[in-house]
Write a structure and sequence with these properties.
Elements: H1 3-6, E1 22-29, E2 34-38, E3 41-47, E4 62-66, E5 69-73, E6 79-83, E7 91-96, E8 100-106, H2 113-126, E9 129-135, H3 143-154, E10 158-161, H4 170-176, E11 182-186, H5 193-201, H6 205-208, E12 211-214, E13 220-223, E14 227-229, E15 235-237, H7 250-256, H8 258-265, H9 281-288, H10 293-333
Parallel strand pairs: 3-5, 8-9, 8-11, 9-10, 11-15
Antiparallel strand pairs: 1-2, 1-4, 2-3, 4-5, 6-7, 12-13, 14-15
The structure holds guanosine-5'-triphosphate and zinc ion.
Length: about 350
């Protein structure tokens, strides 16, 4: 594989580049500068104003580079999106072009399936393929058996048990993060994400960065790349924003809970609430013991949240539209010769 392919560039699916430019991958986004990885190494470049339209550049994005200027952002294959809590419905792309999202939970206590399902829904929404990673396997009597149980409960996702202490499972996980593939980790605090990143990198992160550099304004800033090369040739995105949980959209929820979604689609009534309705395939599955009540509850909760979120952004969209129309009316009133 050449250097670009190792960075995740796929010649067969490559977008067209503007004349005289070369592709480079964003490793870090700072206020005024981008740290990019290109076939000839890493450097800091300036983003052209065009890059700041839309959601702006994100770690993992490909840009077209002309000299030290990133002239355009290339189309994304996948995007891990976060909706800024509370402040409008502004979407922020936390990481782009991920192939794999590692959904991390720990084996130190009981695996919290509902929480894992939440993360899975978010991961599916991004367009990447999730893999569940159960850390702290050394704290579990029979990690392989537990991993198998979790895989059975989650349906359709691979589950790998690992330990940063004994290093068991690390090779199996590394094998999934092969050359040119890009992965990122999500999961709650304390489950061992940092330890796992260090174990996968084979050296503590602090040893690879931060690097003191002088930025365009001559000020000293501490920078650390957030797109890391793994010893096996894969890439690992580790951004602070990536670790916070975003809310999944309907599509992601339907993939994470494909069994429930399929059942719901088989109910007699299209708007079935799956409670007391006749011909409800969901309650029938609960009664037959083929669907877990907790899993149904998790699905309901996520659906309700996604619905509330959609309503919120609709309200915002409506308010914006009203403001636009009001401004238009005001502008018309201030015109002396307006037509009646
Ligand atoms: N026994 C055991 N402990 C682990 C393992 N991995 C991590 N730990 C411990 O779990 C605790 C949390 O690990 P971190 O790697 O900091 O967890 P994190 O998910 O990065 O947490 P945040 O930084 O808060 O997001 C630390 O005390 C680690 O030493 C493991 O494989 N086995
Ligand atoms: Zn139903």
């Amino acid at each position: 594989m050449d250097d670009l392919a190792l960075l995740g560039w796929d010649d067969e699916r490559a977008p067209e580049l503007p004349a005289g430019t070369a592709p480079a991958r964003i490793g870090r986004v700072d206020r005024g500068l981008l740290t990019v990885l290109a076939s000839d190494g890493e450097r800091r470049v300036h983003p052209a104003p065009a890059l700041h339209g839309g959601t702006g550049p994100a770690v993992g994005d490909w840009v077209a580079l002309r000299g030290d200027l990133a002239v355009s952002l290339l189309p994304r294959r996948t995007a891990f999106v976060r909706t800024a809590a509370g402040r409008g419905s502004a979407e922020q792309v936390v990481a782009a072009n991920l192939d794999t999202v590692l959904v991390v939970d720990a084996l130190g206590g009981p695996v919290r399936l509902r929480r894992v399902e939440r993360y899975l829904a978010v991961a599916w929404s991004s367009g990447a393929t999730p893999v569940v990673v159960l850390t702290k396997a050394d704290l579990c009597d029979d990690a392989p058996a537990t991993a198998a149980e979790v895989a059975e409960a989650l349906l359709g996702v691979d589950v790998v048990a690992v330990s940063a202490v004994t290093e068991e499972g690390l090779d199996e996980l590394s094998a999934r993060l092969g050359p040119g593939r890009t992965a990122a980790l999500v999961g709650p605090s304390g489950v061992g994400k940092s330890s796992l990143v260090n174990a996968l990198l084979g050296e503590p992160l602090v040893a690879t960065g931060p690097v003191r550099e002088v930025d365009g304004r001559g000020r000293h800033t501490t920078t650390a790349r957030e797109l890391h090369r793994l010893p096996g040739g894969g890439l690992l995105v580790d951004t602070p924003g990536m670790r916070e949980l975003a809310l999944a959209d309907d599509e992601g929820i339907d993939v994470a809970y494909a069994d429930v979604a399929d059942l719901a689609a088989a109910c007699r009534f299209r708007d079935c609430g799956h409670r007391t309705e006749p011909g409800c395939a969901v309650t029938a599955a609960i009664a037959a013991g083929t669907l877990d009540l907790g899993r149904l509850a998790g699905w309901r909760k996520l659906q309700a949240e996604a619905h509330r979120q959609a309503l919120r952004s609709d309200a915002r969209a409506r308010a914006a539209e009203h403001a636009r129309v009001r401004a238009l009316h005001k502008a018309m009133r201030s015109q002396p010769n307006r037509m009646r």
